[in-house]
Amino acid sequence: MTNTDWNAVNIVNPQGQGGWLLVCEHASRRIPDALDGLGLSPAASCSHAAWDIGALDVAHALSDALDAPLVAGDISRLVYDCNRPLEAPDCIPARSEIYDIPGNAALDDAGRQQRFDQVHTPFHDAVARVRESWQPAQAAPVLVTIHSFTPVYNGATRAVELGFLYHAQPAAAQALLAVEQARGRYASALNEPYAATDGVTYTLEKHGEAQALPAVMIEIRNDLIDTPEKAQDMARHLAESLTQAFPIPDSEAAE
């Protein structure tokens, strides 16, 4: 076991001057060597259960396009899901989607606490550190978390292509949805395919709404971003939607 092997977070462009702070909790499917792959099958270790397919490529491209800081997870959510508190039953799942996770099945409270300390704590400390030291040119920065979802879940086909989620304050998600629906390229919806009641807005609330920052969680159907080329195209589209939904005031744009 090495410190590098348990690195839980990567930070990109921490001093970016755009008006957005980007977070990608489920960016990696990497499992530290000490966990012996959690006993996963090859199919499970590459599946959406292990990470949000395409989300990191989109987040990197958005960071470039928007000159935005990006905090990205570097360990699979099957080791510890950084978008969940320790008390959430699915923060270290014994089963995810159609896959059993043998390495999590017999984990006791001490083992869960150790995973929390090794993965959750450094990740969220990094988000807080970037947020607190960040001095963007835009006076009203927006927290944006980037996720992806499967086209089919539990046998049901999902028609929605882009979802915009909020925890308790809907204004930012509603603003982005209004722009998307006006543009008309993708089928978009509010709080789809998940909502706060599904327990998916932990990071959004912790680092956005609770800090008085406008905040929105973007969910992208992963067949739209499952190649680097598709992810780049989606990032270009979302960058335009974000800049339309949250324009820089004229007085700042002129500086």
From TrEMBL:
UniProt-listed InterPro entries: N-FG_amidohydro, UCP029730
One family name in Pfam for this protein: FGase
SUPFAM superfamilies (alphabetical): Zn-dependent exopeptidases
UniProt-recorded name of the protein: N-formylglutamate amidohydrolase
The species this protein was found in: Sulfitobacter pontiacus
The organism's taxonomic lineage, starting at the top: Bacteria, Pseudomonadati, Pseudomonadota, Alphaproteobacteria, Rhodobacterales
